[in-house]
Amino acid sequence: MSGISTGGASRDGYGKGLLRLAEDSRVVVLEADLGKSTKSHHFREKFPDRTVSLGIAEQNMMIVAAGMASSGKIPYASTFAIFTERAFEQIRNGIARAGLNVHICGSHGGIHTGSDGSSAQSIEDLGIYRTIPNMTVIHPCDDLSAEELTVLTKDLNTPSYMRTVRNKVPRIYTPDDAKKLKIGKGSLIREGSDTAIIACGIMVGIAHEASKILQADGIFASVVDMHTIKPLDNELLRELAEICGCFVTAEDHSIIGGLGSAVSEWASEEFPLPIEKIGVKDRFGESGESNELLEQMDMMEDNIVQAVKKVLRRKKMQS
Amino acid sequence: MSYQIEPLAIMAKECRKDIIEMIYSAKSGHPGGSLSAIDVLVGLYQTALNYRLEDMNWRDRDRFIMSKGHASPAIYSILHQLDIISKEDILSFRRLGSVCQGHVDMKWTDGVDFSAGSLGMGLSFGLGCALAAKMDKSKRKIWVMIGDGETQEGQIWEAAMAASYHSTENLNIIVDRNRIQNDDFVGNQMEIGNIGKKFESFGWNIREIDGHNMEEIVDALDWAKNDNSGPSAIIAQTIKGKGVSFMENNPSFHGKSPTDEEFKLAMEELG
Ligand SMILES: Cc1ncc(C[n+]2csc(CCOP(=O)(O)OP(=O)(O)O)c2C)c(N)n1
């Protein structure tokens, strides 16, 4: 994997992805007064006739999207991640249950969203959407992968939820590497055989930094960008479990219900092994800078380093 | 266009018998709101809705969105009268594997365009269909039916506001104003006042009719179909349980099957 450079935020990738999707005339975009934030406004500016503005009414937007999907359109509906949650039952009953391929994007996910405070920091979205039958749940780690994964959603045979984030993070992928991504296939960012750090979203970059610190201590960790939370890449998990024998998960999401839970569910049935979880520990956030909040919630590089050391001790005790 | 009223009345009567039979057979279901809606629905399917019996999935068919999906027996009775589903199908209502699910469901039944069960969503869905039809420059019309209790859901008004903003003149709604909801009379639960005025203030064209008078029904449907100045709402004043004396205007028959005795009586009354 090539060097990290500064790029845009993953929401910018979503905006660019929509523009690339526009060549398919079935693609339509729905907005609820946050197009400038989710970045769907780029599509709106170029394709006003295929963009529907629905005002601040998220429940209506989701079901309007369902109606359009039933009429042959491929709808992309976005708002803040937290406000998609207001329409959870619409998404469950009106979209997924009806088998309608609506693609939902929730931007500004996680505590990383920062100073808007706890009302804007969705830390449960991945968990709740993962419980819905047939939903594909995606959370990219940078703008380039977000763009590619957005483009790939169009050919899914399921509805999807993609969480993007507000703030810029260092790029993980080069444009060429990002083009190799596949929905449902985790991406190995770094190979190591002592443990594997399974991460998503902004935590992929932080995990990558942590793995460099660990290497200086003689500990070699694999780092995975598990951009698809559902369906989870069980094949990759098994390979890594056999090589490493222990995992650390890392996500900007509640440790209840998200990636860490999904990996633990898999492990408990398929391959029991020690797992440490980095994430938001069953609490709400508050206003602050992204990094201040990550520090407050024990979600920095050092916390991952400590979690790796702990999980290695647990692995040793077991053997 | 003028229609013979008599055959419509005969079909509605057959539908009423089907409704009672299938709910009795399932030992559960919603007779009240099915019986209140059936006259309007027969009028809709027989005089206004544009579809092809030989191809219920025809792309340019009008869409009918039954938002008050608990009144599914009304829809199944019509689909049965049209020979799209069989007598066995309707008698398997609510049983495991039946094409007649408890609430109408587009994944289970040919000729159903919406997966209902959760009130308040159908108008939004219809709006999505209407917007898609306009983008496709298709002439298909979108028809939605909701209950009066259902108008208590805020999403109905989100959709009503959006429809007039987007000038979806191809979108029509019928409100089954039977004045009873789940627990009790609407007036005792949370009275909603003049629904027509509310839609009007949201920018809709409105008509109030007697929802059991076939001439008024056919006339209003024709008006909604041909009015191109904006979305149209028909407020159909109806009687919950209409056609079966002891169910009429009786809140306890919102969601309950008749007993053996009641079944016999009801079928006798319906002839
Ligand atoms: C969102 C939602 N809340 C509650 C219910 C349960 N429920 C089913 S029918 C009903 C009453 C509906 O009343 P109305 O809309 O007046 O319908 P009708 O009288 O025509 O049957 C209720 C509360 C539901 N199906 N969906």
Description:
The complex is a heterodimer of chains A (319) and B (271). Chain A is α/β, with parallel strands linked by helices and 319 residues long. Chain A has two domains: 154 residues, 3-Layer(aba) Sandwich (Rossmann fold), CATH 3.40.50.970; 132 residues, Rossmann fold. Chain A is 41% helix and 18% strand. Chain A is built from 14 helices and twelve strands. In chain A, helix 4 packs parallel to helix 6. The longest helix of chain A is centred in the C-terminal third of the chain and has 18 residues. The mean pLDDT of chain A is 96. Chain B has 271 residues and is α/β, with parallel strands linked by helices. Chain B has one domain: Thiamin diphosphate (ThDP)-binding fold, Pyr/PP domains (Rossmann fold). Chain B has ten helices and five strands, in the order H-H-E-H-H-H-E-H-E-H-H-E-H-E-H. In chain B, strands 1-2-3-5-4 form a five-stranded parallel sheet, with helices on both faces. In chain B, strand 4, helix 9 and strand 5 form a beta-alpha-beta unit. In chain B, helix 1 crosses helix 3, helix 2 packs across helix 9 and helix 5 packs parallel to helix 6. Chain B is globular and about 50 Å long. The mean pLDDT of chain B is 97. The site of thiamine diphosphate has 22 residues of chain B, from helix 2.
